[in-house]
Amino acid sequence: MANVKQSLEDALKIDGAFAVCLADAKSGMTLGSAGSPGFNIEAAAAGNTEVVRAKMKTMQAVGIKDRIEDILITLGEQYHIIRPLATREGLFLYIALHRSSANLAMARFRLAELEKTLQV
User: Fold this and answer.
1) Domain boundaries, the chain
2) Which of 3, 22, 55, 62 has a C-alpha 20 to 30 A away from that of 85?
3) Could you tell me if residue 29 is left (phi over 0), alpha (psi between -120 and 50 degrees) or otherwise beta?
4) Mean pLDDT of 76-105
5) What confidence score (pLDDT) does residue 2 get?
6) Distance of CA 8 to CAs 45, 61, 64, 89, 97, Å?
7) What do you get for the CA distance between the two ends of the chain, in Å?
8) How far apart are CA 97 and CA 111, in angstroms?
9) 3-state class percentages of the chain: helix first, strand second, coil last, to nearest 5
10) pLDDT tens-digit profile of 11-37?
11) Range 4-117 classified under CATH 3.40.50.300
């Protein structure tokens, strides 16, 4: 099992990745982060807690009894993937990737594999 720091460093090895963190969806706080100092991953994760909360609220309102596997935000030059942890309710992995050098399918697969080994 990998600790948070090692898992985040491994996530940065995903093609196109430039920032990653583990965040708490309840507080918006990051529990660990890694990546480019030019991108404020902590602020981005705090803002994306609202995305996670909104989706959970919507699922509840329409009666969807399922879990979020991941949420993809596609920007002109970037992909942002939010992956709530299946084993730790309220926590999510968040990764930002350069769209020009990322393989979205592989990034989602690798993030899912990292989640399996993450020890919080």
Assistant:
1) 4-117
2) 62
3) beta
4) 96
5) 67
6) 14, 33, 31, 19, 13
7) 10
8) 12
9) 35, 30, 35
10) 999 999 999 999 999 999 999 999 988
11) no
